[in-house]
């Protein structure tokens, strides 16, 4: 095989790249760029009305919990991608999950480690909404 022939990244390299991109999305959760951040109706109910800065503090606390999440272990992050986290918010068990889609969100991404072909969607939900 020639040295010029591209070689696929190892699984560990891909997982590391995916984890970096997922952490970046969480770090920039209020400005996700081409990625997306969604919340379920259950989370919206926990926050309440954020119009005219009502319950704005609750929303900020929720986003801080996701941005600051660092409890990744082999048990809860077996592939090392930092794509799922669980936490308590307003007395409810909650979770966030990152999924990988193609550019037009019509199917899964063929290569989640490549941000040029992947849109990340971070969904925040109550654990009982799964």
Give a summary of the structure in a few sentences.
It comes from Sphingomonas aquatilis. With 130 residues, this protein is an alpha+beta fold.
Describe this structure as you would to a colleague:
The chain is globular, with a radius of gyration of 17 Å. The chain contains three helices and four strands, in the order αβααβββ. β2 (84-89) and β3 (92-101) form a beta hairpin. The protein has one domain (11-129). It has a four-stranded mixed sheet. With 130 residues, it is an alpha+beta fold. The N and C termini lie far apart (47 Å).
Attribute tags:
four-stranded mixed β-sheet, globular, 3 helices, alpha+beta, 28% helix, disordered N terminus, 130 residues
Q: What's the assembly state of these chains?
A: single chain
* Major sheet: 4 strands, mixed
Uncertain stretches: 1-8
Taken together, the total number of domains comes to 1
Q: Summarize the amount of helix as a percent range.
A: 25-40%
Terminal CA distance reads 47 Å
Portion of residues in beta strands equals 15-25%
How is the secondary structure organized here?
Elements: H1 11-27, E1 36-39, H2 41-47, H3 56-67, E2 84-89, E3 92-101, E4 119-126
Parallel strand pairs: 1-4
Antiparallel strand pairs: 2-3, 3-4
